[in-house]
Please model this.
Amino acid sequence: MFNEFKVTQIAAFFLQKEGGEMFLLKLMKLLYLSERESFARFECSISGDKFYSLPHGPVLSRTKELMDGEQKSSPNGWSSWITDKANHKLGLKKNKLNISIDKFTELSFSDLEVMEHIWDKYGHMNQWQIRDYTHKHCPEWKDPNGSALPITLTDLLVAVGKDKEQIALIQERIKEEEYLDSMFGH
Model:
């Protein structure tokens, strides 16, 4: 299930690494690549978001709505940490600029490990380089010809090297987790 608080802290982590402000396109690609890496390493999502192919590459759908101001933020969520989009950029709010890593309470050690890896590997790229990278190296992304196409979990898992048996087990575990979350109101 989508976790706005986790995705907010992931975005804040990358914004802090970039000095407090970043083009939305680059930030989205870092978030997507983090999700992809988390599935490759740990067979689970960090954010619980859904994936879509858009003309500029793969995106996290609910996260994009938050970035674009199309979805209302929860109290202490996205809008408490991240500025509104201006000139295709997002930034950290002033009171979050130098926040220490121990304040990222929603993120696990493995989440942070994935994000550090993604930053080390792609953080030097500009928005166009990282977009082009996802077009060439994320085979689950399909050109939607100006529209939007869902990226299925199966397509993502195949792209990160999981076999049919692993995919079935991952999907079953996710269904069980979603059922338990719905039972306990999470």
Q: What stands out?
A: The longest strand covers residues 51-54. The mean pLDDT is 94. The CA atoms of residues 7 and 131 lie 20 Å apart.
